[in-house]
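Researcher: For the record, we're logging two predictions in this thread. I'll number them. Prediction 1 follows.
Model: Prediction 1, sequence and structure:
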Amino acid sequence: MIAQLFLMKGTRCLVRLLHFNPTFPKRSSMQPSVLWPNEWLPCVVGNGLVWSYSSMTIRSSPTCRRAARSVCPIRRAAFGDDDGPAVIFPLRKSRAADASPAFPPFAHAQVKATACELVSQTDQPLSRQSTADITRRVNEVLERLMSKTTVWRTLKRDAIQPWRYRYWIFPRAPRFGPQAAAMLDLYAGLWQGEPLGRNDFVISSDEKTSIQARIRCHASLAPRSAAPLCIEPEDKRGGALQYLAAWDVGRGRVFGRCEAQTGIASFERLVDQVMQPQPYCHADRVFWRVDNGSSQRGERAVKRLEAKYPNAIMVQTPVHASWLNQIEIYFSIMQRKVLTPNDFRSLAAVEERLTQFEQLHNAHPTPFHWKFDREQLNDCMTRLNKRRMARGEPPLDLAEQPLDMTEQFLDLAA
């Protein structure tokens, strides 16, 4: 009786295989072997492995029981194929599904066109569209009704998310391409087509204005198990300061200072902080990349810097080119790690934390790995010019040849 019981367990894989696959060849080599003396009966199918009939936990065994998460578990047979599902479930498919053909390509194109248009320029009182909004508008055009799931699958296939948005600065300076290319040449170690020397340095500087100290009306609660950091939303304004910083592109070091306000005097103090110590005081050339702030704009700012430090060369970026300034990357890191969330006891605590973070970074300086070059800039300008020409605007100049920036200061000031 025990032998028959083990025999039934051992032949279960073959019986199930014959039930779901009647064309399975019935060969004598695929029949179970004789009972072993230790009451374990091996199941040999073709040239497959030998399994014990009583093995219910080994995943490679044909008698292994799958986990309950599988809707229709499949058990493998010894010859490499599966021996059919262990349980047959009814098809979860509507009877009208066969009678409902798939949507034609025009319907999918209509979904994408509706999702990619600016809804603010239509008659809809919306600024952004959700999946339900797109479905409603598409069903007004199509003769058949389309579900939200079908619309979602169509948009996901092309990674279209009309409910998301981001702010973007569009360049509008006429010679944005050549001027921005000169900035990228400095990152690549070039200036006016010539390589930089070993005693040349590139400094990227900017201002992060109006850093506020928000004093919370209730002390924050530290994070604990299953609970994040809790911060009181109501606060008192403790004043604001301005943070001026200079980033050494080649060495990865930062020089910063806090000021009560921005201006020419504040910027000159930052320049003194960088240019007076080694190695910048004895450098051959120190290129200062600055934005179009009030203290660094025009030819007068160039002459002021050159008169005080003859080895300093000011390179002014075109309008809306702050995304080409590497100091903005450091400001982004500082905003995430130091200033968010804004929970300070006083304005002095803000200045102290900014100074300590600067020291922490300079302990292990690492330059940014900049990848954006002239070729990618030209591709970006080409796409931008297509949009400008479609709107009837004149195209911007491309970055084709190295530009002598000393001849463009008047254009930048204008």
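Researcher: Logged. Prediction 2.
Model: Prediction 2, sequence and structure:
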Amino acid sequence: MSTAQISHRPLIFLALAIFMAALFAGKAIADEDESEVMKVVYHADFSDPRRFSAMLTSINNMATFYENELIEYDIRIVFVAHGIRFLTDDKLSGTPFAEDAALADRRDNLKGRLLSLNDVMSVKLELCDITRTGINLDQDKLYNPVDAVPSGVVRIAQLQKEGFAYIKVE
């Protein structure tokens, strides 16, 4: 081996070390950027329109804060059981989730606010399909942006595993 070849070895090792450090640093920055997305799941399994209104206010406040601060976010509402009342204009007569006077009085307002959160703030709406099929409600009777998930509680658990914060408005 010549002296020229031996003297270049440290430079090659140094270049390799710098390359590896840059590679790992790039991955760390990418991981950090990914974790900057604020992820929140709201659980709606109740029938009270005032409580639902409070939840919509909370979501709007959160999304507005993130928008104003230029923070990326992913907010979802998972509807289970009685929460289905807020995703359809159907009165759900003959089911445990039937419309009452309180919901009838506030339905238009709640619907407008919910659909606005979806349209303007990109809040995702997910409904437990066990609930929907359990009362034989056709998918086409749900508001358009609602996505069906096989099980609402399983979906919430999956989202929590993915790093979503869990919020249930009391």
